Amino acid sequence: MMAPMRCEDVSTAEFVEFYTAQKGRCLRAAVASGMDPDRAEEAVAEAFARAWSRWRTVRVMESPAAWVVRTAINQNVSWWRQRRREVPSESAADLPVADGPGQVDLVAAIRRLPPRQREVVVLRYLLDLDTHATARSMGVAPGTVSAHLHRALASLREHLTISEGTPS
Amino acid sequence: MSTELERALRNAATDLTLDTPAADVLARGDRLRRSRRRGLALGASGVVAAAATVTAVVGGQSRDREPADAVDPVDTGRPSTIQVAAWTGPDTNLSGDQLADVGATCAASDGGPGGLTEPGWRLPGSIPPRAAELRDDVVLAYYGQRRDYATCVLQTTAAGGLQVVARSAGVEKALPAGRHVELVTSGAGDPGPLGGNLARIYAVVRTSPDVTRLELTAAGRTYSSTADGLGFFWLPDGELTEADLAGATVTALDADGAVLHRSGPGELW
After folding, report:
1. Tens digit of pLDDT for each residue in A126-147?
2. Which of A31, A35, A41, A81 to mutate to test the interface with B (most CBs of B within 10 A)?
3. In this complex, do B63 and A75 lie within 8 Å of one another by their Cβ atoms?
4. Cα angle B231-A62-B22, degrees, rounded to a multiple of 5
5. Number of domains comprising chain A
6. In terms of residue numbers, what domain contains A130?
């Protein structure tokens, strides 16, 4: 009787540690992926709940955080479809995002990238996966990740240059 | 510049914080797990209903899925409805234990002709599925490793177990440029000697990275599935005949809803 309880306690502690460490990162990744910031918090919390509901499976994944973000985004897509796709998820890129002081509108710029480039940026930088883990998460070759990343960084760099050079 | 940009990306939007207490998340997760167990128990007890109805039964995932009759999102001026049987994507409504049962049951099933020589045939039971989901009383599972793949279709039994309905295996071919959809496998329950409407119709489709949604149209009805490299279809019982399926068309759409590909009636896809 005691052994399962200890196991459950350890699992709970492990999940809480994961949640505490990753919740902000996952929220930022979801927003950068195009989610409405007002809805992202609820969707990411729900995705974490799903992760806990199947923690034995999720905990051994290469990136449980990426699973959480993907699940949150999938919920978002489903929600838009329930709303007759009146606002396609892609148009979320135009929603306002409050960047911190000095951060320009970097998140807004990420949201304007094409979907695959945006996914690479989110996985590589906001979730801090390496190239190979990113490739496995996306189901593509590492070279494809590098190509998307190269184009994404070029776009972002150009965007930042324009932003910095544009009088506000 | 790249280093500076990369540093900025890593620190982007640090003002966004998630304030939901961990205790709330744990409680929600516990509720999801309990409702999912109830869902599988109901599925195993022989509850048979239209696929979309059963989305309410499979518990934790039900909020992800559309109602049985969704208004056609494309305003065509006609009163058609879309019977939705959408796959939820990488998420699965099966627990770790259930996924293990699926793998073990598939691995233990007889090979049958044509499958044993494919390397992918050995994947179920040896690795977790890339995607698996229970809908109604049918589980679709897709296993992939490098380019080898296997599919396994199972049905829940009245005794609460699983039995394999069909398996397939092969090597994923790279989709040619401009090709967005490839049917991996499909099947349906035998309509019996008198023919008639099919039951337990399923299809597994591979898609290009650009595709986020698939629509299968047969007999004037359109069925939708999320696509994420794969798409699963469970079509409602009693609505389609073999002839309807033979003339079905598939449409691949991107994230903006733009049509990437639409097959002609009866065209192999």
Report:
1. 988 899 988 887 778 899 999 9
2. A81
3. yes
4. 95
5. 1
6. 2-165
